Amino acid sequence: MNNQILKATVQTFPPAYFALPMATGIICIASHLLGYNSISNFLFIVNNIEIGALSVILILRLIFYFPDFKNDLGSHTEGAGFLTIVAALCIFGTKNVLIRDNFTLAFTGWSVAFFIWLLLSYSFFILISYKKDKPTLQDGINGSWLLLVVAVQALSISGNTVASRFEFSQQVVLFITLLLFLLGSLFYLIIIVLIFYRTAFLPMPPGEFRPSYWINMGAAAISTLAGATLVKSMAGVPEFQDFIPIMKIATLLFWIGGTWWIPVIAFLELWQRTSIKIRYSAGYWSLVFPLGVYTVCTWHVADVIALPFLKQISAVFIFIAWIAWAGTYIELITRLRKVFLKQES
Fold first, then answer.
1. Which of 48, 86, 223, 241 could crosslink 151 through cysteines, CB 3.0-4.6 Å?
2. How many domains is the chain partitioned into structurally?
3. Contacts of 196 (CB under 8 A, 6+ apart)
4. What DSSP element (H or E) covers 36?
5. 185-217 per-position pLDDT tens digit
6. Is the pTM of this model over 0.70?
7. CA 38, CA 44: separation in Å to the nearest integer?
8. SS3 labels along 114-133
């Protein structure tokens, strides 16, 4: 029976499940920033276990169920979910620098993440492009497409975090991470227009609202964080001084955009929950992650634009992020327990 559970788990492993270590990792970083070191250390350990366990499952799926992996990667609704792998590795590396000062592990994580990003992002777009039968915009797009943004902005942030260990010059590193930020910004502008159109002008019954729509806010928040990180990295580098005012405006633009989405998505989430029965799914980690990254990005925005009162928002949001993380984890454990008990009976 246990072998059957393992095979089924590996074969049907959801592409977006690395949103779990994404959420844990960013809330670990948020807790560290706000001085909750005990919670941060606990989440640090949990995040390491998550990365290890999910990496093993993913490798097994690649080896034994590659056709299923390829089918998911070429799916309009599921394929972008694989980019959670990139973001999870980048957050894993950033966390190790900030909390353990482990640049070697962080640099390794960033390098692997960059290679995986190149492979997955191009493969996803090429596979969906040459398909003969394509879904309509209403059926084919959802918030998970914004993982194209999240992945590339996570690479920008992680690259700046480990920049001192690159063998390249600081100017080259900043240029690369700036290009990544701009590419992520371009992706956001394109995709959010399509999602806005799909949400506002096409029917969306409660069952079609997915947790991934929380990435509308999460993608803007991580773009904010990438911008703020670049502003701090550019300080003192003469070649990039002219970029700083523009980067501050772009950072604030993404922050207010992400902030605007919060009540909209929260309302849609409550509307769905009062209309249909909600069951745990891997997608709900896409709800938890944006809460954590919004906490972190707001903290850094307060430093970049010298408005420390904004840190009070982070001080409140960290509690919301903890509650969402704990509640979703309880649902995950409950789900796993039911599966194992059912198999044993």
1. 86
2. 1
3. none
4. none
5. 999 999 999 999 999 999 888 878 888 899 999
6. yes
7. 10
8. HHHHHHHHHHHHHHHHCCCC
In Å, how far from its chain's centre is CA 100? 22
- Label residue 141 left, alpha or beta by phi (over 0 means left) and psi (-120 to 50 means alpha): beta
Both structure tokens of 249 = 């405006």
Distance CA 201, CA 32 (A): 42
Nearest to 228 by CA among 199, 255, 193: 255
Closest CA to 224 of 259, 191, 175, 174: 259
The enclosing domain of 157 has a CATH number of 1.50.10.150
* Residue 145, token pair as written in the block: 């497409």
3-state helix, strand, coil in the chain (%, to 5): 85, 0, 15
Residue identified by tokens 């709800």 is 287
Domain boundaries, position 263? 2-344
User: Which tens digit of pLDDT belongs to each residue from 96-143?
Assistant: 999 998 888 888 889 999 999 999 999 999 999 988 889 999 989 999
